[in-house]
Amino acid sequence: MTALVRFAIVAGCVAIAGAQSSRPRVRARDLGLTFGSMTPGPLNAITDVAGVLVGHATIVRGEGALKVGDGPVRTGVTAVLPRKDIWFNALFGATHTLNGDGEMTGTHWVRDLETIAHPILVTNTASVGSVHEAAMAYMNERHPGRDWGFLPIVAETWDGRLNDVRGLHVKRSHVFEALDHAAAGRVAEGNVGGGTGMIAYAFKGGIGTASRRLSAEEGGYTVGVLVQANFGSRDSLVIDGVPVGRELAKELLPEVKAEGQPNADHEGSVIAIVATDAPLSSRQLERVTRRAALGLARTGTYSGNTSGDIFLAFSTANVIPQQNTPKTLNVTLLSTDEINPIFRAVVEATEESVINAMTRAETMTGINGNTVHALPYDRLAAVMARYGRPLHR
Amino acid sequence: MTALVRFAIVAGCVAIAGAQSSRPRVRARDLGLTFGSMTPGPLNAITDVAGVLVGHATIVRGEGALKVGDGPVRTGVTAVLPRKDIWFNALFGATHTLNGDGEMTGTHWVRDLETIAHPILVTNTASVGSVHEAAMAYMNERHPGRDWGFLPIVAETWDGRLNDVRGLHVKRSHVFEALDHAAAGRVAEGNVGGGTGMIAYAFKGGIGTASRRLSAEEGGYTVGVLVQANFGSRDSLVIDGVPVGRELAKELLPEVKAEGQPNADHEGSVIAIVATDAPLSSRQLERVTRRAALGLARTGTYSGNTSGDIFLAFSTANVIPQQNTPKTLNVTLLSTDEINPIFRAVVEATEESVINAMTRAETMTGINGNTVHALPYDRLAAVMARYGRPLHR
Amino acid sequence: MTALVRFAIVAGCVAIAGAQSSRPRVRARDLGLTFGSMTPGPLNAITDVAGVLVGHATIVRGEGALKVGDGPVRTGVTAVLPRKDIWFNALFGATHTLNGDGEMTGTHWVRDLETIAHPILVTNTASVGSVHEAAMAYMNERHPGRDWGFLPIVAETWDGRLNDVRGLHVKRSHVFEALDHAAAGRVAEGNVGGGTGMIAYAFKGGIGTASRRLSAEEGGYTVGVLVQANFGSRDSLVIDGVPVGRELAKELLPEVKAEGQPNADHEGSVIAIVATDAPLSSRQLERVTRRAALGLARTGTYSGNTSGDIFLAFSTANVIPQQNTPKTLNVTLLSTDEINPIFRAVVEATEESVINAMTRAETMTGINGNTVHALPYDRLAAVMARYGRPLHR
Amino acid sequence: MTALVRFAIVAGCVAIAGAQSSRPRVRARDLGLTFGSMTPGPLNAITDVAGVLVGHATIVRGEGALKVGDGPVRTGVTAVLPRKDIWFNALFGATHTLNGDGEMTGTHWVRDLETIAHPILVTNTASVGSVHEAAMAYMNERHPGRDWGFLPIVAETWDGRLNDVRGLHVKRSHVFEALDHAAAGRVAEGNVGGGTGMIAYAFKGGIGTASRRLSAEEGGYTVGVLVQANFGSRDSLVIDGVPVGRELAKELLPEVKAEGQPNADHEGSVIAIVATDAPLSSRQLERVTRRAALGLARTGTYSGNTSGDIFLAFSTANVIPQQNTPKTLNVTLLSTDEINPIFRAVVEATEESVINAMTRAETMTGINGNTVHALPYDRLAAVMARYGRPLHR
Asked: How near does any CA of chain A get to the CA of C54, in Å?
């Protein structure tokens, strides 16, 4: 075993220890990776869509053996507010489930009432209940006059490999923190918020985001995506068309190859949220959510059986007041003939969001000393170069 | 057997022969029946929705033994044009399938593109293909410049008990006739168009229509329904809450009771088309189509296994040009808070449409001497009176 | 105002005070009402389906003015266990949403994995979160070895007219109580469990149940339904085809008629759970859930805009082990040709369940002295008699 | 313009003329291309699934200017028979629509009755009607005793760039030919059957097929896919992760680049049929159809607005007799825990089917001299080599 390439087997999770350099974790484009042909927005984030706010509450506490209720804790909650006043001014929205082993509450409303009227909260699987209750409490405390529409949107993926998921560590205060501090501007990625303890393609995953801006001729609209990436078997990972997972697997020492096989535990789930300022109808937004699946497919997934791959999309263009609603609403809708650049943007931004989650996430050690390694930059660069995509930066 | 009540057993179809009076067949309200609490439009027909046109081609020819290809023929095709120029100016639309043993082509488009861009044609099961081809031919001949969107909407129910359904008697000329003569105003009901050979609740069925007009406070909108009714087992029939089917069955002579039992052949299918000038989104229209199911339920059906219960709804309020379409459309949408009277209207008008089909339909003898009797007015009146609903007219 | 008929206007809820007799509240059939033509099971309850357990935790505490967090409390939670060991042995299942202004968690799994693998918990709107969390805690405490499938099924309707719904009074202990005490046998109805504070057709509603047993020739299967009925505007109420709501409304004094009008608050929601031992596939069960809508339609509803009308069905016939699952399962499925009696049974049992909830529920006074009156037996009898259905018992 | 690379602009369709070598068109693997990591079946075709038959009728006639009704004709029809006796012995099936600007008839049945009970016929857009009628005629002539289930499955894509699509040249005899000659064994690809005049990623497309065989440990099942590929804008084309479309576009002469831009005409549609002998339920098959979308995504598509991307899947493992059906069926179903290799196989085989359609298709000239060029082998090899995938054969 050389110093250059050393392998670690930690609690069933195999990674290339040599990948853990002190180099700060950056976004995929900062590494020289590219995705598709369209232009990102200024922040290359879901917050490029004007009005969209993102807030995280990250909970990292303790080390060592798991003691349910005590920790170690590696979890959190992420809030996406389609508008600051989303409780009072709803937006057209839609959802789609690519694979159903997961949860997103509030979708009966979205499908039938065709609007998003609450923030979207993403957390770990066991905390859906407490986050749901906290979302109601937040509304009651911050907006005591509002007494309708008790239907929060809470989605989840499972972080039990690194986190004391049964310990129910996401408290009301964390939900309030994520909502109160939700902001426009740059979005923290990787091991933050709901993504703190998540795993993607058997590397460290978490929160990722990206955006695309259409040309003026195409309408000048922005499409932003945010994912909580916790899915994929390692050998499936594809980046910009390159079979990175397969190539990295080749370099594993023989004794660890067996550990690298597809594994239900690694399948996880992915939540994708798509925002746009293009004036889309709820039906057009439903079509948009199906394109999120196409974007994920570019990262190699076949959407495994135990994955909860659930997507939500909204448009900020038309506002549907929830109070003193006029009897009829004048809305603007994009002609369906103009929707192709939107579809393309969704595919590209979803793909890039997943890889951003991975390139930004840092190696993490959680419960029982379980370690999940970050995607190693140097090895990634070597593989990309072999496939005609040198990361020249 | 008295002269008053005589029973006939003809080819497995049992009916009360005494019911065949010379009294002309009228609409349900003309008999004194009522449905719900809302007010019908002036014509109590789908054509109360301004711009909607209906045309029938009715084919009745021959008697006696079935000879496939020769007849006897008891069939036709009914055309509903949401607008005269529907090929060029589409409308928001939606579909719903309550039970899937049936066909309505063109629904992939409706669900995804959220519009109705073609006339709706309703015919017999075996003629779906020829009517589909004729619909394309019509477009090519009447609108030669139009070269997009080859996706006709053709629905069907099965008339093989009375009609030489395998003989494929609905020709291109019939489709042209139904489309060319489609008109506003009164709508022929019963044994006309696609409904010619249809059977409802083991009585003669066919085409029926009804409408409701909302009060000015409710928006003043109109909801119209047209059904091709070919469904239901006799014992299930309910009219205005009265178990008419069960009561009539009690009066059958013992030897014919066995024939009156539920029977897959009698389940048939029902196509319901809902039109409104309320400015509904495609999602709201999808919700509307689910209410058509509730209206059918009021007539007693449990939607049997071999039924093709397929519904389509459209709104005439917003026009989506299919040529020179602007990049964005300004549309008006009804606030969801205002939709309840629409839902109620759909339920009531669907219920009444089915009964209109039955009260207007006349007893018919078709292939192999098979006779299906019309719903008998006198017996109906007697049953309704026993249940507190005297038909005082 | 006579002694015989006195009207009360309490907090916008109008009812016939004279209806409050001391006569104990009984089931609909005990009043002489009938529904459809099929035969109920021995208990006329969902528990006629062997293995199905039902448990309630009912919370009634305090009187007078609402003080959020203190009460008065009129709420609870109802648990339906498809099997005692449902966490370990799943059953085929399906869901359907007739109108989406409501919540039932866990449905992404049901639709895609096609099984029910958790108890079904029904509570008030604001308690979805705490019940969800409690359901996980229950699994962890009672089945500590089970570490998969964190996807509870929690449904709700809104009881805020009578209950301090924001006070979040459904605690972990109540969920444990409902689950621990779930039992076969007779099912408490009316003001119990999740149904404690619910309102149906502007009368007191709550939990109701009914069943149908198919003839031996039809397979001898049982279909059971349980509803949490909290829906419907008063004027819409229909019982066995009789427009009871409209007729009762006629008798209201002029000054209270305005209060009896359709009202969004009265629309509420309804959760319906259908159980059967017929060996149905998940797709057949989805078809079954659509028939629950037809059963509700018979009680007069048009499924209002603010209603969460969500249905779930399961079959106890085939067991899908969640541990040591064999690679292939041998299952028995009902031929689709045999499904009609099942459909009919679902329609009839759903209709009867709703009316049972109303005939069993007692008049209740809750927060701020708000009173909701029980359906008055004497007036009901008078109306039914006028419509040819004397309640001769 | 050199002899080596000459560009043609024909009727808005730009291709590399130098690509037209005399080298026979082969399958993608014969060029050295690879797709995924699983092993194809012996034929690498949908017919690797035992019992599945494929038949084509190809109609190529005439040259020069379009004269509607006369030609030139470049079209046909392809039949996939899940079983030779599919009319009498149905199979579990499912469908999914990724984008709805297209037609597949018979899907209401498939979704609700959960079976495929007819051959699947794929043709051009305008011939849906005549093929539908011919499918009924075939059943009547070949199986005169069968008088139920008149619900053929007919899908389409649009070939009007090369074919006189309005001329309606697919006659009854062609449908009979495709059905009568449907066979196991090798499957003709490219310009055959329904795929004759189709275009994929602005190169010549058509029929393609591929398969995967699972290891014995995974169950030893086979998954086969057949596509009629008529979709995609050129710049989107990806092959094994390599942006082939983008790279080839770079080599176009400046004056033709404008022609290579994304274009609604090039979006077309794709029909994908997935067969497997794994014992899947209809719900599992629905999940399978969603994976076909992921396979298409690997070829670069974002599923454009005017595309009819409609998928159908069936399992040959369980037979549902349509005559003398027993009251209950004993069926074997795959545990959902075992489904991942099936999903992966669907993704890989769908991807490869599309590329097979392209590598097998030959350059074609159709109406008005319109030429669509085949994917050029030499240029493809050059691009693949630049991206680390030398085609060493």
From this structure: 22
What pairs with residue A153 in β-bridges? A120
The one-letter amino acid at A162 = L
Q: Is B211 an active-site residue?
A: no
Best residue in C302, C344, C350 for a mutation probing chain B (most B CBs within 10 Å) = C302
Q: Return the axis-axis angle of helices D128-142 and D172-180, rounded to nearest 10°.
A: 60
Structure tokens at C182: 């779930």
Q: Of A267-276, A369-378, C73-82, C234-243, which has the strongest mean pLDDT?
A: C73-82
| Residues C211/C40, Cβ–Cβ less than 8 Å | yes
> B74: distance to nearest CA of chain D, Å?
18
Touching subunits for chain D (3+ Cβ pairs under 8 A):
A, B, C
Which tens digit of pLDDT belongs to each residue from C161-220? 999 999 999 999 999 999 999 999 999 999 999 999 999 999 999 999 999 999 999 999
Residue B391 forms part of a structural domain? no
Burial of B144 (0-12, 13-18, 19+ CB in 10 A): exposed
Give DSSP secondary structure letters for C325-351. --SEEEEEEE-GGG-HHHHHHHHHHHH
Q: Could you give the angle at which helices C172-180 and C128-142 cross, rounded to 10 degrees?
A: 60
Judge whether C393 lies within some domain. Answer: no
User: Averaged over A131-155, what is the pLDDT?
Assistant: 86
Q: Total structural domains in chain D?
A: 1
Do the Cβ atoms of D367 and D197 come closer than 8 Å? no
pTM for the model stands at 0.93
Expressed as residue numbers, the domain containing B329 is 5-386
Residue pLDDT, tens place only, C17-42: 334 445 789 999 999 999 999 999 99
pLDDT (0 to 100) of residue A148: 60
Cβ-defined contact of D333 to C328 (cutoff 8 Å): yes
C392 lies in a domain? no
Cis bond leading into B72, ω under 30°? yes
Instruction: Give the whole-angstrom CA distance, residue D369 versus residue A321.
Output: 56
Q: Under a CB-based contact definition with an 8 Å cutoff, are residues B31 and B380 in contact?
A: yes
Token couple for C393: 């018992």
Q: How far is the alpha carbon of A132 from chain C, nearest alpha carbon, in Å?
A: 5
Q: Which residue in the set D109, D126, D147 is minimally distant from B150, CB to CB?
A: D126
C 91-120 residues with CB below 8 A of A?
97, 99-113
In this structure, what DSSP letter does residue B104 have? B
Q: How far is CA C263 from CA A308, B340, C164, C260, in A?
A: 38, 10, 21, 8
Residue A102 lies in a domain: yes
A242 touches chain D (CB under 8 A): yes
- Residues of chain B with pLDDT > 90, as a percent, come to 82
CATH code, domain with D213: 3.60.70.12
Contacts of C225 in chain B (CB under 8 A): none
CA distances from B283 to A149, A381, B115, B310, B311 (A): 19, 47, 11, 17, 14
B245 touches chain C (CB under 8 A): no
Instruction: Collect all residues of chain D within an 8 Å Cβ-Cβ radius of residue B140.
Output: 68, 166
Q: ipTM value of the model?
A: 0.92
- Residue A126, chain C, CB below 8 Å: the answer is yes
- On the question of pLDDT at A10 being above 70, the answer is no
CB proximity list for D24: less than 8 A, separation 6 or greater: none
With cut-offs at 50, 70 and 90, classify the pLDDT of residue D144: confident
**A66 and chain C: CB distance < 8 Å anywhere?**
no
pLDDT tens sequence across D36-49 = 999 999 999 999 99
Q: What does the alpha-carbon distance between residue C188 and residue C207 come to, in Å, rounded to a whole number?
A: 8
Scan residues 320-339 of B and list those with Cβ closer than 8 Å to C.
Answer: 336-337, 339
